[in-house]
Amino acid sequence: MALEQGSIVEGVITGITNFGAFVELPGGQTGLVHISEVAAVYVKDINEFLKVNDKVKVKIISVDPKGKIGLSLKQANPSANPGGSFRGPRKPKFEPSFEDKLARFIKDSDERLSELKRHTDSKRGGRGNSRF
């Protein structure tokens, strides 16, 4: 089967790298889905969207003379719904709440401020610190 630019085909994820995912297409050819073509949202970690052996629908966006095939998941699935041919992002294992982040910030800030005061007071000779 000849692969033409613009056609949508089904394939299987065979490998994942930090810059994209390799997809085996019908006929045994392999193409690359660049990380920027995985989803309509910013993708920091491709493993949140894809895993090896996932079946996906991809659009062929380029075929160069050397045989490299560029693919796109987001163009093949414009709705990009989680019930589509690829999963949406996985839920993070633990995401601290705003209150937790704020409490951590205040604690760190207080510790830094008290350390700064202690350092400054010792240089000035204040608060009963003895000088050697």
TrEMBL record:
PROSITE patterns: S1. One of its GO terms (molecular function) is mRNA binding. One of its GO terms (biological process) is translation. It comes from the Bacteria. Pfam families: S1 (PF00575). Residues 113-124 have a biased composition (Basic and acidic residues). Residues 6-74 form the S1 motif domain. GO terms for cellular component: cytoplasm; ribonucleoprotein complex; ribosome. InterPro entries: NA-bd_OB-fold (IPR012340), Ribos_protein_bS1-like (IPR050437), S1_domain (IPR003029). Keywords: Ribonucleoprotein, Ribosomal protein. Residues 72-95, 113-132 are annotated as: Disordered. Coiled coil: none annotated. Belongs to the bacterial ribosomal protein bS1 family. This is RNA binding S1 domain protein. It comes from Desulforamulus ruminis (strain ATCC 23193 / DSM 2154 / NCIMB 8452 / DL) (Desulfotomaculum ruminis).
